[in-house]
Amino acid sequence: MKRLLSVLGLLAFAAVLSAQAPLWDLAKDKIPAELNHGATVAADGSVTVGGENYFGVPAAAFPDQKNFTVQVTVTFPELTDGTTMHVLLKQQKDGEDTGLGLTFLNFPSIQAHRPIINGMHIGDKRLKLEPNKPYAFTVAVRKGSPTYYLNEYPTGQYFILLLPNDEPMWVGKKLLPREKPFPSAKITSLKVYGADFTYKSPKEKVTAEPRGAIAGKSWMVDAPTVVDPKRPKLLFYGDSISGGYRGHLLPSLEGKVYAYHWTGFVGGIDPKVDGLIKQGAAVADFDLIFFNNGLHSLSWTPEKATDQQIIDTTRAIVRGFKTGAPQAKLFWIATTPHTARRTEPGKPVTALGDKNPVVLRINRLAEQVMKEEGVEVIDMYTPLAARLDLAAGDEYHWSGPAYKIIAEAIVAKTNEVLKLK
After folding, report:
1. Which whole-number Å values give the CA distances from 258 to 82, 227, 280, 324, in the listed order?
2. 246 burial class (0-12, 13-18, 19+ CB within 10 angstroms)?
3. Quick one: what percent of the chain has pLDDT higher than 90?
4. In the chain, where are the structural domains located?
5. DSSP assignment of 136-182, as one string?
6. What's the pLDDT tens digit per position in 261-306?
7. 211-418 sits in which CATH class?
8. Which residues contact 13 (CB under 8 A, 6 or more apart)?
9. Torsion of CA 320, 247, 391, 150, to 10 degrees
């Protein structure tokens, strides 16, 4: 019996090892010749990219694009101002809104790493870049939603459903022609794990009421674990701006309201988008819904979108929420300003961006729709336009104090409507 148990134990252990084994490992797997564009392999197994040289991990290493983990360690032998390095990049054609990436920035005004999700550059995570210092990153995609870690510390959890693609994962490839890449970067480790691997960081906080996700085709709603069915439910919908104020909003509502988060946007003119919005709005019996379509609609210039097209698409978004959650009270959050880029390190932003007239137009037309549809407006444009010093400096995002202002406005309205203390 002991021998049998021992054999069974070994088999079980072997199964665990098999499940945890990477699908692709730089230390063991050879880079396919057709995916190697000048990258050089050293005797110790590390691979150097930089300048015009890069390589790719085969697309076959990602059989389940909703569940995979990438771990990469990179060092920079030398640093040059004004350079960008896309350490990881898995998306269709340059700039298309699919997949994900990981970018390092080394500019006089900012040193940071930045996630790319569905073609969007999501904020900047500042860090002091040092030559020959290893940076160990993990990107864990669970149910289509990515979380980024640096040296096991979570740097960002993004409840955006990745749009899949059949591209390789490129290491060191330029994204845009105007970019000046780092002169060199040494990849000392790169592993890709499949759906059987679950990354758990020892430095990640575990919440008492863990969150999960409810997903459908092209949408995903980040959802709390409901333990008190009598507690009110709230949905907030928006792009990366909503991800910015999320960190202030959730703690303020904890224990009082279940807050669901849907990171979404309608970037193109689509008067039939109400069907998609309806699906996400129906995942719970929401009491309140706060929504905004965000800066991804900056392409809605007069040359590309008429007033009526914008009105029709905006009304479709409203009707989708109304149909999916007929019991909910709706609030539209006015789109925040488009700002100028930071001109000097340490200096605040002092001007609105060149695309801000598009924001003003969208807000004006959206307010017209909200008045006709009986939806209350929460003006977040005016207070932030008066506080450009709180802008992040990348034209779109904001600093923590600005996000706190938005969260406080939502909390105040929630307390007022639900009569909470």
Report:
1. 44, 10, 16, 18
2. buried
3. 69
4. 21-193, 211-418
5. EEEEEEETTEEEEEETTEEEEE----PPP----EEES--SSTT--B-
6. 998 888 889 999 999 999 999 999 999 999 999 898 999 999 999 9
7. alpha beta
8. none
9. -120
Cα–Cα distance measured from residue 201 to residue 12, given in angstroms and rounded to the nearest whole number: 24
Q: Which fold has domain 21-193?
A: Jelly Rolls (2.60.120)
238 bridge partner residues: 263
CA atoms of 74 and 365, how far apart (whole Å): 47
Sign of CA dihedral 73, 78, 81, 82: negative
DSSP per-residue codes, 306-348: -HHHHHHHHHHHHHHHHHH-TTSEEEEEPPPPPBPBP-STTPP
The per-residue b/e assignment along 162-182, b for 16 or more CB within 10 angstroms, e otherwise, is bbebebbbbbbbbbeeeeebb
- What does the CA dihedral 168, 159, 16, 28 come to, rounded to 10 degrees? 20
The mean pLDDT value for 206-222 works out to 78
210 vs 4, more confident = 210
Q: Which helix (H) or strand (E) holds 417?
A: helix 400-418
Question: Biggest alpha carbon distance in the chain?
Answer: 79
Element spanning 6, H or E: helix 2-20
Structure tokens at 330: 């709706």
Contact 181, 85 (CB under 8 A): yes
Q: In whole angstroms, give the CA distance from residue 231 to residue 364.
A: 35
